[in-house]
Each structure stands twice: as structure tokens, then as C-alpha cells.
Amino acid sequence: MINYHDSNLWLSILDVLKNSTSEQNFTTWIKPIKFLEFKNNTITLCVKNIFIKNWVDKNYVDLIKTAAFKKHSISDINIKIIVSDKYIDEDKRNSKIDENTIKTKVDTINSYINKEYTFENFISGNSNQFAAAASQAVANNPATVYNPLFIYGGVGLGKTHLLHAIGNCVIQNKKLRAFYYSSEKFTNELINSIRYGKMDEFRNKFRNIDVLLIDDVQFIAGKERTQEEFFHTFNSLYESQKQIVVTSDKFPKEIPGLEERLRSRFEWGLIADIQPPDNETKQAILEAKAEKNKIKLTKEVTDFLVNSVISNIRELEGYIVRLGAYASLTSTEITVEMAKEILKDIIIEKSSIVTIEDIQKKACQHFNIKISDLKSSKRAKKYVVPRQISMYLCRQLTDCSYPEIGEHFGGKDHSTVIHSIKKIEAEMETNQILKNIIRNIKSTLVV
Ligand SMILES: Nc1ncnc2c1ncn2[C@@H]1O[C@H](COP(=O)(O)OP(=O)(O)OP(=O)(O)O)[C@@H](O)[C@H]1O
């Protein structure tokens, strides 16, 4: 039997892991793990925060066990991941050493980063964990793992939160200069710089930072000069190995009016999406927000909110605050009846029955087209695709027959409906964007 009483065991496991994971994943997730002890057949490892713990638990524990088996034939080993003060203390020590050098560096620039948005208070679930993990990876290893990182997803789902979390993390832990900018602010400053002849200043400002965080980049689409300047800023940062993170409400290919050269650059790194939250994630977010705002929500009220058709987390937050304010002003407890009454104009209770009309309405909202166009026989792609998707969803979410569906789409033949549905099914096998679109529309209909 091998006697493992020091970290050699871990080092040998690391050796195996290095060869069985990608370099990026190894550097991001495995290398920073600290070995604590090996006792009673349990290896205890320590990581920096709860987010990393959850990610490592979910994605790497089995791999670590396999590596332990491969290297030392230990098959019944346990892996315990803890968030330990040791890690934090060491981090603090390290940060003290170069505090002075760093202070000047970080404080010299107003980073526009909101301290409230951190990884610690970002609740991650199936819908957002890929984007959250990618953001954490970038924050741990700026400009090494995923550059640029492009995060996209619907309104109010946490993209901005993740941008700030990256900013806070690199400023605190890496002492880098991070800079948060909405693309509107970027555009406005550019216009002012052109008007007042301050372009050199503008360029220097953007090209002397370590991590550039640009929010809602879709707003620069169609703006020629802004895209041009952003393109040069991007290139200059990228070439000097600085990190760029961009968010958008759409996948790069779906942003109308975005120049090809920018689109292709956004696709160089990693593209991560955030989907509307599932019920468990919604519940966890609701509970966390209620606790933060010191608002008491009973299980019934939480269930009611979770089961209403809201996926926008910003709205969800707004409703909690509204309920909290009402309860405190009237000195009453928050009940389901009160929630229904207060939120009656804004909240739609989930109904178990989805109708063809509901699907058509939501699809038209998503694609920004008219119901009459959806039901028409127009052959332009911008109508055909929404029509086919709607038919597909009608078949999936209602009990209607093919002829009934055809009837609701301007009297189409049942063979047209079958053809449309088959087309979507085939396309979904390979087209991730289409899959996301369908998932998004579906989540507004059934939660
Ligand atoms: N997973 C989450 N955990 C905790 N809070 C969240 C989460 N997702 C979103 N939020 C909160 O919801 C609110 C809206 O999020 P955010 O502003 O990041 O959305 P967004 O995707 O950037 O929206 P927009 O497209 O409008 O810019 C914020 O207060 C944010 O803290």
C-alpha cells in the first residue's frame, strides 16, 4: 500500500488530469485547486469560493477519482471540495504585498463597475451556468482562456451582472484595470470626442486597460463610425493580450447591421448563452433577493411567483420589492391573495392550457412580425421561419391535429403543416441557434 501523507498524491493526480482535460479547463479549474489532506481515503481539496466549488463538484470530481484510480489504483476514494479560509487568507496576503503598486494602478481609472454584482451573489442554475462558468474562468485567467468572451441572452437574465462580476473579480484578485462600458456610452463618448477633437484621448483611454467589458453591443450595429472605432479598439486590446468581454441580446450572427469583421471577431473566442431560468433557479433567486431586501415570502407566495409567466429576473426583483413595500406600508403579511391583487396588471398566472393563439402571439413578439404575416402565405424567410416554428410548437404544446393547426394559419393544408414541422425537427438536430429560439419562446408559454 502506498503511503500518501503529503501533496505528492495530488501532484501525481494533477499529472494525469493535465493530459485528460483541455489546457484551458486545466488552467482555469484544476490548477488553482489546493490540496489540503488525504485522510481516511478522502482527499480534501480547497477552492476559492462556492461558485467554483459547485462547478468542480459537478464537472471534475469524477475525473479526479478516475485519475486517482489510473495512477494509484485506488477505486474507493472520496473527494471532498471545501471553500476554505486558507485559500482566502493566502489571497489576502498576496494582495497585501503589492497593495501599493496596485492601488495606483486600479484607482487611476473610474471603472464604472458596480460592486453589488459579484459571482458570490449570482445564482447559477441550468439556464445560466455555462455563461457563469465561462465568466468565472475569464476572471480567473484574463486574456488566456476565452478571448473574447461573448455572452448573449434575453432581457434581464443576468448578462450585465456577470460583466460586473468579472470586473470586480479581476480588480480585487488580479489588481487589473477593468472598465465597464455600455455600448451607448461608448458611442456617446466617441461622438463627443469627434466633436471636440479629442480622439487621441478617447483612443488612449480604451487602449490602456486590461479588461474591457462592453454591455449590449447590439446597439452599435448599424452605426458605422462606432463600429469602426470599436473594431480598432478591439484589435489593439486583443493584440496586446488584453481581455474583452461583450454582451448582447442576440447571437453575433443574428445581430442585424453588425459588420462582418466585428461579427467574426466576436466568434473568435467563446460564445456563451443565458437562457430563461427554470423553476429551481427562479426559486433560488427569489429567495436570495427576498433575503437581501429583508422581505418575508412564504412558500405559497414563492410558488405563486415561480409559477407565473415571468422569466425576466429584473422584473422578478421588481415584483418582490413592490410586494415588500406594500406589506411594510400597510403592516400586513405578504399572502398569495395580496400578491395576486398587487401584481394583477403585470403578472400572468401560468395556465396549464396553451392555445394556438398563445403560441402565435409569443412567436410574433419574438420575431417582431404581425399575426397577419404569420398566417399569410408570404414566402420571405422572415415570415416562413416563424410560421414553421409556430406550427412545430402548436404540435408540441397543444392537442390540435395537423388540419386544425393549418386552419389557424390562414387555412393551410395539413401536408404543409407536416412539412413545416418535419423541417424544424430536422434543422434542430444541428442548429443550436434555432434550438435556443424555440426554447426561449417555449419558456414564455410554459415554465
Ligand atoms: N442568476 C442571477 N442571480 C442573481 N441575480 C440575478 C441573476 N440573474 C439576473 N439577476 C439580477 O437581475 C437583474 C437584471 O440582470 P441584468 O441587468 O444582469 O440583466 P441583463 O441580462 O444584462 O439585461 P439587459 O438585456 O436588459 O441588459 C439584476 O439586478 C441582476 O442582479
UniProtKB/TrEMBL annotation:
Compartment list:
Cytoplasm
Gene Ontology terms, cellular component aspect?
cytoplasm; plasma membrane
Q: Where does ATP bind?
A: G156, G158, K159, T160
| SMART domains given in the database record | AAA, Bac_DnaA_C
**Domain I, interacts with DnaA modulators as annotated region, ranges:** 1-100
Keyword DNA-binding attached: yes
Q: Name one GO biological process term.
A: DNA replication initiation
Supply the domain comment.
Domain I is involved in oligomerization and binding regulators, domain II is flexibile and of varying length in different bacteria, domain III forms the AAA+ region, while domain IV binds dsDNA.
Q: How does it assemble?
A: Oligomerizes as a right-handed, spiral filament on DNA at oriC.
Protein name per the record: Chromosomal replication initiator protein DnaA
- State the species of origin: Desulfuromonas thiophila
Lineage of the organism: Bacteria, Pseudomonadati, Thermodesulfobacteriota, Desulfuromonadia, Desulfuromonadales
